[in-house]
Amino acid sequence: MERRKLTAIDLFCGAGGLSQGFMEAGFEILAANDFDSNAAKTFKLNHPSSRFYDGPIQDISTDAMLEAAGLSSGELDVLIGGPPCQAFSVYNHRRGMHDKRSGLFREYLRMVEGLMPRMVVMENVTGITSVAEGRAVDEIYRSMEKLGFHVEHRVLRAEEFGVPQERRRIFFIGVRDGKRLEWPEPTHFLERDLFSLQSEHKLFVTVADAISDLPELNIKDGVEEAEYDAEPESEYQELMRRRSKVLYNHVAPHLADINLQRLKHIPQGGSWRDIPVELLPAGMKRAKRSDHTKRYGRLHPKGLASTILTKCDLHWGAFIHPTQERSLTVREAARFQSFPDRFRFTGSRVEQFRQVGNAVPPLLAKAVASSVARMLRKTRKQVKELAGAH
User: Fold this and answer.
1) How many domains does one find in the chain?
2) pLDDT tens sequence across 114-158
3) Residues with catalytic function
4) Which of 101, 309, 356, 375 lies at 20 to 30 Å from 247 by C-alpha?
5) Residue 277 domain-assigned?
6) Which residues touch 54 (CB under 8 Å, ≥6 apart)?
7) Nearby residues of 10 by Cβ (< 8 Å), 6 or more positions away
8) pTM for the complete prediction?
């Protein structure tokens, strides 16, 4: 019997950003894998119907993964995943192919060969194209094409798909026995670009659009499970709150007294440049005005959030709340990543931030998934029509 839902398996799934987006686009996530035990707990909590394989992917056979999904080779609709990207990240100054993490994309390719899905979606940081003169990209293309896949890659901007954050990710999409791919078209734009666009297009989702409805907090205020205390103020907030009865992970991190003093001098949209020199960290007192552009940044309510990293640390970027004297909570970071409020992160606060920062924004994943779904359904229809003709 043919499944009504399209099927997917998620490798290197982390907390489950890709899975969340694909699920929202109508896919059934049959199975998933990650070696990170903390991220695995979060994934299992939020995707209880998916079969989960803990541990290194090197220890999992393709036969075991097929058995977990209840499929035979060639029956899976799409294999998705994001091999660990730290080796390719511009934030890793020692990045390169010598880093053992850089070879994990080959494990993904091993799974492609064993599962032979109808389509493949692999995401990563944009730095994968420049490390070792793009050797990883070349190998991905050669390996996939050898297996009969037509492959393309593009860099997608999360903010163009309704994510309230500046974020760039590279996506590789492969289709088996096909020659044409459909990529998602941007739906959100800067105001100045809207005059020539269609009525269904929208403005970028701003910081205020994303988090203005969340309860106000002082330093160390908040609990892991709380009630909403205000109505949603934007379409985005209504979307994030859909089917959510309580608010998770909204706790203000502790800040040292020196950082509290620094915060007082930073206006909306400001940064370390607004801090008196005597209050700056020692290593930044000699910094050029053109350096560290996002450090100690306070978000502007009418702007986009900066890229959410694995630490929303003041010294790393613009992670100061636009109107409150504190840094971001895990829930606010999750809102900027487009995780719905019903999605709960587990583990320590450090682990929660890491899971959020490592994730693919679900709304970006959903945009890709919707294009993939259209391609798969067209293929299914063509196969049925061909079978009927005979």
Assistant:
1) 2
2) 999 999 999 998 888 877 667 889 999 999 999 999 999 999 999
3) 85
4) 309
5) yes
6) 33, 34, 35, 37, 40
7) 16, 18, 19, 22, 29, 31, 32, 33, 50, 80, 81
8) 0.91
